[in-house]
Amino acid sequence: MLPVWSMYCNRMLLPLFAASLLCITAALAVPRAFAQSFVPVNPEEAGVSSERLARIDAALETYVEEERLPGAALVIGRRGHVVYAKAFGYRDREAGEPLEITDLFRIASQTKAVISVGVMMLQEQGRLLIDQDLGDFIPEFDRTTVAVKTDDEGFEVVPADREITVRDLLTHTAGIGYGWGPGARAWEEAGIVGWYFADRDEPIADTIERMGNLPMDAQPGERFVYGYATDILGVVIERASGMPLDEFMRVEILEPLGMVDTHFYVPPEKADRLTVVYSVTDEKGMERAPDPGHMVGQGMYLEGPRKSFSGGAGLVSTVGDYARFLEALRRGGTLDGARILSPKTVELMTVDHVHDAWQGDGGGFGLGFGITEEIGWSGLPGSPGAYAWGGAYHSTYWVDPAEELVVSYMTQVIPAQGLDDHQRVRALVYQALVD
To answer: pLDDT tens across 334-352, in order?
Structure first.
């Protein structure tokens, strides 16, 4: 396998460590995705063992050879440098097209972290407060209701105890699921079920406004309920900023951080870089997901109406772009001279806000991220204070401030039954840290 910087030389124009140098020597070239300060170095310079990193190669190559994964891409950053950036397997197995580190993945719920950062930027700009009522921005949520199960397997609708706040949405404690809760029948009749939006032929705000009249799954603040909260936050961003969501994200976050390959829909000129989605099940093994259409298929990220900008699950990105986003957060909200947040806001986002409402193990949830508080429960290495999440197509990420570590890992598998690659990658990343 070629080093990542060699692959970039073959594919696109690359910046270099010094502006006067050309891409003569592959080992000196730095991909645009890792431009300026967040650049590849010899891993030992960042306290990482090259010999131990090779164990990651062996593991991911085995997943591909055994047809447990179609392909995977991984970027590891340590102490402000890229120490590992490789792709394995295929973008398209049937066509024999190898996966490249610059290829595009559907990152689904990894979109949520980027949108949450956008909300916090607006608080820093004085355009909103996260403890404001949601109804201040979307009046349809002024007075919400909750579906409560009845003995006959139906439900009754009761008024919400209080207003939903922006912070409720950031922490997924607004009581808003994905339309599968006690009031599922009402959500189905409204045509709003599931996290997938790419095929919708209407602006996201129109869909969200209809949600305000539907019964929620729980009372505001009662418990952690994962669902449309961050899609709703996308509309809050539009109302508070006065900009369409895609434009706000591009101007305020993506361009400043050099995330040149992160989009709500794939630009036509980048269509050949979009990875194919596969399904892995116990019954059938790995097979190509249906094409086109449904969320468990290839999706409408190329052929869709390009109207519904889903803040909860809509972005496509590269493993390198997302690593830049994570590195900006690790540095307290800045990267390569662009500051998107203050260090205190990043600190606020990455501590537990839900406490007893959290139903997971070993941690809690902040303003857009799962938070690690205890490392013993999982049997895998980590650090208290690390934050992480993932996406429906089997991608994941984490930031470990104590170890000055960022990890961006992407595959395209849904469903992903019986796979343990996330756990194995985590173990292999930490075992390579030697200083």
So the answer is: 999 999 999 999 999 999 9
Range of the domain at 199: 114-245
Range list of H helices, 14-74? 50-65
The number of distinct structural domains making up the chain is 1
Using an 8 Å Cβ cutoff, are 66 and 72 in contact? no
Q: For 128-142, what is each residue's pLDDT tens digit?
A: 999 999 999 999 999
Asked if pLDDT for residue 264 goes beyond 50, the answer is: yes
User: Residue 190 domain-assigned?
Assistant: yes
Identify the CA nearest to 346 among candidates 415, 399, 417: 399
For residue 201, being part of any structural domain is answered with yes
Q: Identify which of 48, 115, 108 has the alpha carbon closest to the alpha carbon of residue 84.
A: 48
* Residue 397 pLDDT level (bands cut at 50, 70, 90): very high
For residue range 3-18, list pLDDT tens digits in order.
333 333 333 333 322 3
- From 211, 209, 212, 192, select the one nearest 143 (Cα to Cα): 212
Rounded CA-CA distance 389/422 in Å is 11
